[in-house]
Amino acid sequence: MADKEKFLGEFEQMTMLALIQLGSDAYGAKIRQLLHSEVNRNVAIGAIYSTLERLEKKGMVTSQLGEATAERGGRAKRFFNVTSQGQVALKRARTAMDRLWQDVAFITLAEVKTFNVIGEF
Amino acid sequence: MNHNIKKCIEHEIFSPPSFAVLLLTWILPATVLEAILGDLMEEFDERSKANNKSARTWFWQQATHTSMIYFKKIFNSPSFIRKLNIVIPLVLFSTAFTLIAWLSYADNLAEYAPGFWQTLLTGQAHMALFDGAFWSSIGDYLGQVDSVWFLFDGPSLIITFFSISLLLYLDRKSTFTALQMASWGYALVILPYIWAIIHINSNHFIATQIGPIMAIGLITFLYMVLPVSFLVHRKLKQVESNAKYKDEKIN
Hints:
- The complex is a heterodimer.
- Helices cover 60% and strands 14% of the residues of chain A.
- By secondary structure, chain A is α+β, with helices and mostly antiparallel strands.
- The radius of gyration of chain A is 20 Å and the shape is elongated.
- Chain B is built from eleven helices and no strands.
- Chain B has helices spanning 2-13, 18-27, 30-50, 52-76, 78-105, 109-112, 114-120, 132-144, 154-174, 178-202, 207-250.
- Chain B is elongated, with a radius of gyration of 27 Å.
- Chain A binds chain B through residues 1-2, 5, 27-29, 32-33, 44-47, 49-50, 53, 57-59, 65, 68-69, 71-73, 75-78, and chain B through 28, 31-32, 34-43, 45-46, 61-62, 65-70, 73, 246-247, 249-251.
């Protein structure tokens, strides 16, 4: 696999984490609702499927068809799972981000005001 | 009876916008169509119980955003671009052939299409495509075509030979991508025609002198458009087979 394909984008990570959170109930509508309620990302269902298709091509996600229900107009659900390769990629992404976040400090609003007051003198 | 009417009304209220469903059915690939439509129907069903109007608006938003995402995917796929690279050059070749045949066989254009004749004297032969005289007479003139010698032009052959050689040399030297090949190739296809228009307009030629200059622009275009399309097609096939190989390697 090319180096570029080992890395995950932010939305790819969010989608994979949603799959892990949902467990055996991970299908399009539920993933969309979870991303909306938990991280306030109100995305189109197409964006989720497009991302999942890409992840499936990379071998990080697998899918299988489930049962059809009446409220879905008799259409089957497509359930998704994170593969072990996907889990490794997720952990790698988290380690990389944790390393980069170390010793990162933001200036608080109070400090900004203090600097402004000093600047005026 | 009342029960049936109630059921009909409920069915009417809780149906998602049919045109949005049609749009999705038209654009989405078969691999995701059922799952996406099912997910949307499920969420629409829940939302419409609370507020049907906002549920329909939500369905429309989802359908248009999803269609846009997949439309972009189709448009950016190498196979679609490859098909486009076959269809458009074929149309351009046929158009150029028809235009050259008309200009070669049409009698007394100055009287038959006086408006277009003035435009033609500025080198803009393509303007014939917007002239009624061209479309009304093209069938008759195409019927008169009895040989292909009118398509032979020495300078155009030389320009085509050097242009294609240049493309192949540049490709061998710096290994063109499909985009680079298309940009260079089609630029070389159109360049002689643009040169002809500029050359005619920046000099004061008489009508008989304009013909050979225009022939270089138009006939070079005709000679080059299909070979360039083939070179781009070859590059796009390479891109496609590389992508397939990568997918197989991953799986």
